[in-house]
Every structure is written in C-alpha cells, then in structure tokens.
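Task: complex structure prediction.
Instruction: return structure tokens for all chains below.
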Amino acid sequence: MAVFLRAFFVIGILSVSMVSWSADVAKLRYNTSVYADVKGVGFNHPEGVACSDKSVLVVGDTGNDRLLRYALQEETLKAETEIKIPQLTNPIRVQMNSKGDIFALDGKQRRIVRLAPEGAFKGYLAPEGQSPSTFVPRSFKIDKDDNIYILDVFSGRVLVLNPEGKFQKQINFPKEYGFFSDLAIDPKGNILLIDSIKARVFLAAKGSSTFSPLGATLKEYLSFPTSITTDNRGIIYITDENGAAIGILAQDGSFLGKQLSMGWNEGLLYYPSQTCMNEKGEVFIADRGNSRIQVFTLIK
Amino acid sequence: MNGKYMKVITKVVVLFVMICAPVFSVAQTQNKFKLKTGAAGTLCLNCHDNFKSVLKKQFVHTPVKAGQCTGCHDAHTSSHGKLLAEEPNKICSKCHATVIPKNARSIHGVVLEGNCVKCHDPHGADNKFNLISAGNALCFGCHKDMGASLAKAKFKHSPVEKGCMNCHDPHASAKSDHLLKADLIPLCLNCHKSNSPNFAKAHRNYPVATARCTSCHNPHGSNTAGIFFDNVHAPVAKGTCNQCHDAPTAAAPFRTKKTGFELCKGCHNTMMNETFGKNRIHWPLVDKAGCSNCHEPHASARKNLLMGDGKAVCGKCHSDTMAIQVRLAEKEKQEKAAAGKGEVIKGGLTHAPVQEGNCEVCHSPHSADRSLLLKGPNTVELCGTCHDWLKHTSHPMGEKTLDLRNKNLKLDCLSCHRSHGTGYRYMIPFPTEPDLCIQCHKQYRR
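Output:
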C-alpha cells in the first residue's frame, strides 16, 4: 500500500509539473497595437507582417495595396515610410532578409516582389531552371542565411532558392495532404509546412527530400490554421485563422497549448493572418479582421 | 466378451452420457421450476393470439417457428422494451454475429446501428429473409430521393430495376465502398465487356477498363443517353476526349494536356480572366488539382458539374465550419424540445444558408475583392440582399459609423453577429444582448 501511494504521489507530481511546463513554455503578453501609417491613414485588412532583429517591422497593408515600414523603439512602433509601387498589389505575405531587402507576395498577381530596404523595386522572384516552370506561390520564407523557400501550391512542392533567387532544389509535397497555407524554417534548418485542412504539421528535416507528418492532427485544438513560425528554441507557433488563436507546439509536434482568443478589443484576434517573431521574443500578428497589427511579448 | 469389445462399449457409454447429461440437466431444471410444456414459446400463443397469423406467413424467423420465444424475450422481466432479453440493437447479433465481416470496407448505417427491424420483421413476413417489403421498395423506403429520381429517369440501368442487390450487399461489404459487392470497375465489367468493339467505339478507343466508370455514368440511371450524369462537360458530350487528354494510343492516354487551372483556361478563358482579375483568389483553384477540387471533369448530377451539394463540396475543406453547423443544429433542436408548449424562442442559433450548404449566397467560390471571398461591395449590402429590413430600421451602420472598439473598423452586421453562428441567439458573440451592447456603450456597464 505504501509503495502504491508513493508511486501515485510521484506520478501526480510529475503530471502536475508536465502540465505547468506546457502552459509555461510560452505565453503571449499584449504590448501594443498599430493601426495607421505616419499620416494617420488606417490599415485595411493587413495580412502580412515581417520583422527583423534590427527592430524593423514591415506591414503588408493588403487592402490598401501597400507596404508600411516601422521602427520598434522601446515597445513603441514608429511609422517610417509608405511603400506603394505599381508592381505590387495586395501584399499577403512579407519577409525581410539580413540585408534589409523586403520581399512581398502579391496575392492578386501571385508573384513575389523584391524591394530594396527603402522600397525601390528590384524585380520579381523568378527561379530559373526549375521544372515544371509554372509555379504559384502561396507563401514563402527566408532563412537566416537568406535562402528563400517558396510554397508552390500549383506544382505541389517547396522551391529552395539561394539568396540571389537562383533555383537550388525542390522538395515535393507529401502524398497525402489537404492544403498547405504556409511554411517555416526552424533554427535547425528543418522545413515545416502547415496543412490548413487536416490541421497538421509536416516536416522535412534539413537535407531531407521528403516531408512526413510531425505529430498528430491538431483538429481537436485548431480550426483552420494558416500561418506557421518558430522561435529560436524551435517551439512552433501556428496561427489559427478561423479559431482566432495561436497554437503552440513542441519541436516534436506535440500540442502544448493555445494563446489568445476571438474578439475586437486589443489583445484579441479576429481572423488573424501572418505572424512574425524576432530574436527578442517580440511577436507581431497581422490581425486582419481587426485591421491592425498587434504586438505581443513572448514570456518563456 | 473380450477386452476389445469392452473398450468400445465403454466409449459408447461415455459418449452417450456426455451428450445426454446436459439434456437431463435441462430437464431436471425444467422440472425444478415445474414448467408447463411449451413454456419456451408455444404457451405464449395462448395469450398472444395474434402471433398465430404470423406463424402462417411464408417466412418465419427460425426461433419463432421452433416455438422458442425465449430465444429473444424474457418471460418474466426485462430492462428492455418488449421484454427483450438484450438491448434491441444488440439482440440480433447474438445469433447473427457474422453479418458484418471483420474487414468491412463499408457498412450499411442501419446495420451499424443494430436497427435490423428497419428491414426485417423479427417474427415472420411474406418476403424472403423476413424482409418487411419486397425488392427495391424496401430500399426506397429510406432512400426516397433515389427512388424518386429513378422513377423519373428516362434511361434506367437495368440491374437497378431488377434489384439493388445486384450490385450492393445489404449489410456490409468487405470488398468495396458504398456496400458494393466488388470494386467498382470489376463490378461494371462483369456485364460490360471492355473488349467488345462497341464498347471501344463508345469510349473513343480510350482504355477505360481501368478508369472510374462513375466519373461519367450514373450507375442508377439518368435522363441522358448512355446513363451519363445529367450534366455533361461539353467535350465529353461531343466525344472529344482528346481536347483535354492525350490521344488514346499515347503511352499515358488519360494524362491531361495541362495541369490544374491551366487545362481549363483553354476554354473557360473569360471566366478565368474574371476570376484572376479579383483581389483575392480561392487558393485551391490554383493548386495542383485546380478546378477539379470542386468540379467533376466529365459529368455530374449537379449543375456546374459540382462534385456534391454545398455542404459536401465546401465541407470537404472547411470541415470546421460544417462541424459547428451540426453542433448548432443539435442545440437548436434541444432548446426547442425543452421550451414550454407554445413558447416562442426568438433569434436563430443558425444561419439558414450555412445550414443548407448554400455558401455561395455570401461567398464567391472562385475569387472576390473582399477578404473571406465575401460578395458585394460591403457587408451591409451583402446581408441586405436577404435581410431588407436593414435598409430602413437598424442600429446605425456603414462607412460613416465608427466601431468604438477599433478606429479602423466601421460598423456593419458582422460587428455584432457572426454569420456562421456562435451558440448564442441572434448569432451574437456574447451570451446576452447587454453583454454585446456594452462592448461599445461602456457607460451602461454594471
């Protein structure tokens, strides 16, 4: 009896600490929201957001066909420049490389535009030498070495380009999947895909040429996940568009918890879109339905 | 008597004792309770007089025929209706355990539920297998739509007319989906010989013996010759399969000439240009499968060659939205049942177009200029197409009315309602109306 009680006690302590570890691994604390450009013109359903460790933030103000550049100073976002060029409409995903170049996916034309840090048009990303030649980018990401990863939904693959935009290789989508809406590159260089329909993460380990499921389906926890990112520990953050929340997964794909919920007031989300996280643990969410960008701090 | 005979006699005696012992024991037990002759069943007919006519039917359930009412009923008490010896949905499987094969690929819903009496009379019937009706009439009792459409169909598939059981197994199938007796293609080829010249000619020499027949043909019957589904894609109707596919003599004759939307764009150019001219596209349209994510490429029972009704087509990907609808419909039903007689419950929990799968009432399925592929220039206009009272009486809304919670938002219907339902009446996102109103009218917050 004594042995049984001891075992029960130990299991109890272990379970409690596991639960609290899951809950404590990552929490989002609301900081601020940004609603407008330097002239006070409000956002219109922004879907894209890119952040850098140099405290630069670029917003894809989708409904206004423009990009907006901000500087983050002591938890305050200072509006800098508006980038509105004829070559870019409906920016739905935004990224920056280490040189500060801005890349934006035009949701209407379905092509990726490359811009200088100040916003000058540098051209379209057109990977040469890849077959088949047709590609439709749904999303893209840039890793710490400035390699570009394009989620090509038309040909069912991830295209890997070097920093100059030259085709390096492709990794085909797995055989069974629903629809991939986004991808992420974790600190180890693994590629992660988020399947919105099956609510499942797929992983291609660095150097691997195939994707396999990472963990079980997240249907129980997430409604329609459309964006994925990781922090510097490899913890995975998934934006649940219909569920208006951020799902958090361990590196092995196990579900750790959910943060935030649906609403209109600050700190709440309404059809969120792209999420970006920088080295400092600042989290920027394109809160599309609320026409704003919300800034949170990751409390580890 | 020698030892050899002695051994044989001993064996016979032992065997006799083994066989008869249980019988004697039962007899002893019966005797113990002093049961009358026929207590297991025939005695029941003394009171249950009406069952005498059942016994005269052409097909009588074996235990009934054997006078073993206690095979299914308890003579004294039971926890189940009709003094059944087991739960009604489990009792049949006590004897008929093998109705569902272990490796079943499809199981008839009623069989899965154990609702055997939907088709069988447990006592006796005038039809073989104690079926309550004969032939297809039994199936069409539940599958009413199928019965109705077949009755109207100009071209009927003869095996269906002769009986659904020609192709389907009534209980379960270990061989195929849809309770089919064999996989679809071998099943069809049982009758339709693919090596006949007529077959080859009708299929423009494409090797369709390896293709899914129901991609074009309605296996039950239709109003189109060749029992094609009623809506046929023009190139199929014209027999110009090579408009989309490689030649029948090619190494891969079914390979399409282009992939995804690029194939369809060749003919549907105007529609495609219009689609791609909008700000936001429905992404599956530009993926690997393209248009065939939602449309049948050859023929369909539905308009616009859609793969199914809205619930099926949209629900294929948006299962989260459809799951909410099922939950809300159930809640609606329960709340109505719990309401007092004559009590009117105001405000719907569900939105009719979503419940009915008419997603296209609000969303544009290919592309739109607004997010969520919403139709119309704005939400007020969109909702106003059905809810016209909005135009004359409502909370102030529109471009000039700011949402006090967020300076970038203007008030519209979706500021207070969620069109797919929330679980609260009037589809508001808060339990009560005051909870909603004080979001903006903070001065009234208690």
